[in-house]
Each structure stands twice: as structure tokens, then as C-alpha cells.
């Protein structure tokens, strides 16, 4: 999270009002409702895992055993099981 000086971005009257409650401290201002991104959307991790899991399901449907998928993807038996048996 990037630090921003309130004197630069806030109007003077709003800054004075905030100073009544916070004296020289740091304050977190959350994003507007609905503006939040889900985990991994900015970094691409969410898309990567979605593609990986689809690939695992496809291989499983083609007959690859869970034990083989476990070794190939370096995941636990239970993780592979969860991926192949969960509806998307």
C-alpha cells in the first residue's frame, strides 16, 4: 500500500475535520463498495490457477490417475481430488 500525504489530496476543510480524530497518525481509507478486486485478479494468480485446474480436470477425464497428477503438479492427493471432483 502506498503512503499519500493528506495535505496534497484532501481539501483543507476535510483535512481539518480528520485532524480532530487523528493527530499525525496513519489512517487507512478503504476502496468504495464494489471497487474491491478479488484475490489474485491483479497479479494473474487467479487466472493461472483456473487454467491449471481446468488442465488437471481434462487430464483426469482422459484417464490420468490422481497419483500421476499429484506428482506432475506437485500437489497433495486431497488437493487433486478436490480439483477433479468439484463442480465449476
Question: What can you see in these coordinates?
Answer:
The chain has 88 residues and is mainly α. The protein has one domain (6-85). It is built from 5 helices and no strands. It has helices spanning 6-9, 12-19, 45-61, 66-73, 77-85. Helix 3 (45-61) packs across helix 5 (77-85).
Rounded Rg: 23 Å
> Which regions have little confidence, pLDDT < 50, spanning 5+ residues?
none
Q: What is the approximate shape?
A: rod-shaped
Main β-sheet description: none
Question: Count the strands?
Answer: 0
Supply the helix-strand structural class. Answer: mainly alpha
List the helices and strands and how they pair.
Blueprint: H1 6-9, H2 12-19, H3 45-61, H4 66-73, H5 77-85
Helix pairs in contact: 3-5, 4-5
Write a short abstract of this structure.
The chain is mainly alpha-helical. It has helices spanning 6-9, 12-19, 45-61, 66-73, 77-85.
What key attributes describe this structure?
88 residues, mainly alpha, 5 helices
